[in-house]
Amino acid sequence: MKTTLKISLVLLLSTIYFSCNNNETVNEKNTTFKSDAYYKLDQEKWVQVGKVENNVPSIMVNKDKLINSLEANLLKYSQLYVGFTDVYIYENFDNYHLVFKGAKYTTSLYLEMSDTKVLYARGDTTCTTTECSQEPLGCVVKYDLSKPGAPGYCSPCDNGGKCTKTFSNKALIIVNDEDLIEY
Q1: CA 141, 110, 52: angle at the middle one, nearest 5?
Q2: Theoretical Cys-Cys bridge with 138: which of 27, 60, 132, 167, CB 3.0 to 4.6 Å?
Q3: Is 149's pLDDT higher than 70?
Q4: How far is CA 151 from CA 94, 110, 144, 165, in A?
């Protein structure tokens, strides 16, 4: 009986020790790259949009098709008519975002890079703003890595401006194989 109690106590203390020493933080960049097959398994959410060559990210999809598909879905799901004129990849310390820009609105999607340096958008969550569109890291999609599979959330605007999250069970941008641009 005492041996069982001692073993239980050791297991409990070990669990507490290792739980408290887990230094994972929210939205910490995952440094282990996943294979392209990982992203292709869940094509409902992950969409191939670009790649990184010589440390420079670039879009590999027809930009007009990206813009048109996101505009249609933001109107459908959030009643936002956004009028985007450009889309580009923003990099911040190995974190990538697909940013759609218009005269008034800015919308972002979270990107991950595979082991072959292909960029995939997690297309089921977007963050849209008019009030902090000039802030590069205000109102962008982030994920809590301690909760795998959980939907993304929008980072707050530094100026306190409003940020609209749009979430779907499928990607809000649509890319077909014929939309990919070969390099």
Answers
A1: 150
A2: 132
A3: yes
A4: 21, 11, 9, 10
Two structure tokens written together for 178: 């014929």
- Residue 116 sits at φ, ψ, to 5 deg, of -100, 15
> Could you tell me the pLDDT band of residue 124, with boundaries at 50, 70 and 90?
confident
| pTM reported for the whole predicted model | 0.76
Do 124 and 39 touch, CB atoms closer than 8 A? no
What are residue 111's DSSP bridge partners? 96, 121
Question: At 137, is the secondary structure helix, strand, or coil?
Answer: coil
Dihedral sign for Cα 150, 84, 111, 118, please. positive
Given CA atoms 85, 43, 169, 125 in this order, what sign does their dihedral have? negative
- Torsion, Cα of 131, 133, 137, 140 (10° steps): 80
